[in-house]
Amino acid sequence: MGSWTVTVNSPRKTMSLGARLGDVVQGGEIIGLIGELGAGKTCFVRGFTAGVEVGKDAWVRSPTFTLINEYHGRLPVYHIDLYRVGKQEELEGLNLREYLYSDGVSLIEWFEYLPAREVDAYLEVAIAHGGGAKREIKFVAHGARYELLLEALQQAELKTSKVQGSNRLKSKG
Ligand code: ADP
Ligand code: MG
């Protein structure tokens, strides 16, 4: 199982990682977000929608009260929050499978609330507080498709940081 941990120091960097993931998805992926309240899950999703080229006028807010928000960019994006879904019947009422097994990309906050074995292949994104604006973001690939996705994400991130690095050098000189 491939995994990759990145330490970030600002919401901007969390968004930028989300955007890189948004750049490399192809449709049909499931992204499971884990982390306590205020960890930065919604922040990551906001960056992701930018990567998928969702229009700037589509305001990405926490879907806690709506359970599912849908955005349309290069691909459909389903932003799902299971925080308030307490009961099993409520979860069934959402018809999650319609979203999960579609051409769109599903990002699910409080992914751990999904019953075990409901989804066996997905990219796990676990965000942990590190004090202040520090966060540790751990990506874990579950399933072959997600190993490839994680590799693509790492390549995309490497490229971005190289460009940023050279811009920094340029602006200094
Ligand atoms: P969650 O969806 O996990 O409950 P949110 O993304 O809604 O969390 O909120 C995260 C909060 O933490 C925001 O207020 C954001 O500004 C703040 N924050 C501080 N540092 C970071 C960081 N490195 N990444 C993400 N959010 C951060
Ligand atoms: Mg949230």
- Beta-strand fraction estimate: 15-25%
Largest sheet entry: 7 strands, mixed
Q: Going across the major beta sheet, what is the strand order?
A: 1-7-6-2-5-4-3
> Structural class per helix/strand content?
alpha/beta
Taking all Cα atoms into account, the compactness measure Rg is 16 Å
Proportion of helical residues: 25-40%
SSE sequence, one letter per element: EHEHEEHHEEEH
Distance between the termini: 43 Å
Q: Give the low-pLDDT segments.
A: none
| Number of alpha- plus pi-helical segments | 5
- Counting DSSP E segments of at least 2 residues, the number of strands comes to 7
Q: Identify the overall geometry.
A: globular
> What value does the average pLDDT take?
90
Small-molecule components bound: adenosine-5'-diphosphate, magnesium ion
How do you describe this structure in short?
With 173 residues, the protein is of the alpha/beta class. The chain has helices spanning 11-24, 41-51, 88-93, 96-100, 144-172, and strands spanning 3-8, 30-34, 68-72, 76-81, 105-109, 122-129, 135-142.
Layout of SSEs?
Elements: E1 3-8, H1 11-24, E2 30-34, H2 41-51, E3 68-72, E4 76-81, H3 88-93, H4 96-100, E5 105-109, E6 122-129, E7 135-142, H5 144-172
Helix pairs in contact: 1-2, 1-5
Bound molecules: adenosine-5'-diphosphate and magnesium ion (MG).
Magnesium ion (MG) is lined by residues 41-42, 62, 109.
